[in-house]
Fold this protein.
Amino acid sequence: MEILINDVPISFELENEATAGEVMDGLSRWLTSNGHTVNGVLLNGDLVHEDSQWRSTDITKIERLEIRAASIHQLEIDQLETIINYTDLLRRVAREGTLQQVSSVLDELPHISQAVQRLVPDLSGLLAESAAAAADDSFSDDSRERLSKRAAEVTHVLRQRQRELLEPEHELRSTVAALQQILPSFEEIPTQLQSGHEREALELVARFAELTRRLLRVLPVASAARPELANIEVEDQPFAESVAALNRLFLELENAFQNNDMVLIGDVMEYELLPKLTTLTAAITSTLDAPA
């Protein structure tokens, strides 16, 4: 029996499976553990339906089993693509279009904003603010440029979020590598904050915050495809507790940032986050590099 998933042949060792349904159950479990879901099944070239009798088909009568699978995040990926197409159109129209064209595109902004609020709430309001400012300024050249620039920025971030869903393991690796590169600099932050080099320190904190947010977003998505990531421990804490602790520390850091508490920023970065993230990133790298 030949088995293909999305037209790619796979090796599947039969154990005690005797019917098409039993084979599909095993394949479905494997796909789910790798972050995918079954969208369709073809048996000997014919599309079958869940309510048909195909599941009882003896495996000796099956020459070819084809499965259509999609990421469990496919709907979100598709919705992000819709928003990206809109923001890219807004970028171009704001810069080059007529006033009527700009107004026509902005008429759709409330619907897009609802989708942004649902999928990427941290970006909510950015486009609306820029659009409102542009409207108040009667779409002068400067306001057009600002709206176009903001739309480009949002498009860039949305594409990054989409990549996190499309290639979570790759994005996790790159995020971990970037964090490991800046972690040694954490020890310098207290000195920088106390010696008048606040700008350099806060730029590092901002970069760290961006990478940490990405890490906390991508790690659960990557864990769906690599369940062994969920077994990682940080300072003897189980995976879920470690992530929760990092979230709490990150919120503490954000509050310190908002309150301009430079001493607390330095202490949290150097004494709390540095050891935890050093251990976590090393464990993630080791897990990803281990044979599957």
